Amino acid sequence: MENVKNCIAACLACCIACEECVTNCINVGNKECALMCRDCADICALCARLEARGSKYCAELCALCSEVCKDCSVECAKYGSHHASRKECAEVCAKCSELCAELAGALV
């Protein structure tokens, strides 16, 4: 149960970080990063909701969430030295990716 709570918290933190990063990306005209962060925010929000309710689809969604978070972390890390919000987003996404992968493996 503790793993689920940690993963939910990570997903919600990732969702927030991605939304903040989207705003920054829009302000500087970085469409690719904004699109990636929007997808990541959406999947993280959905993943947290399904985890909270104990959905039978949780393992599959956690695996997908892990993949999206990993991709988002890589994308944001490209610009992390230029923008604090992207550096934070990259770090939060990487952590969420790890926790979602662990939970997906534990639920299978």
General description of the model:
The chain has 108 residues and is an all-alpha fold. The protein has a single domain, classed as Substrate Binding Domain Of Dnak, Chain:A, Domain 2, CATH 1.20.1270.360. It is 87% helix and 0% strand. The protein is built from 4 helices and no strands. The chain has helices at 2-28, 31-53, 58-77, 84-107. Helix 3 (58-77) runs antiparallel to helix 4 (84-107).
Please provide a brief summary of the model:
The protein is about 85% helix and about 0% strand. The chain is built from 4 helices and no strands.
- Element string (H = helix, E = strand): HHHH
The structural class is mainly alpha
CATH class division: Mainly Alpha
| Low-confidence spans | none
How are the secondary structure elements laid out?
Blueprint: H1 2-28, H2 31-53, H3 58-77, H4 84-107
Helix pairs in contact: 1-2, 1-4, 2-3, 3-4
Key words describing this protein structure:
mainly alpha, 108 residues, Substrate Binding Domain Of Dnak, Chain:A, Domain 2, 0% strand, single chain
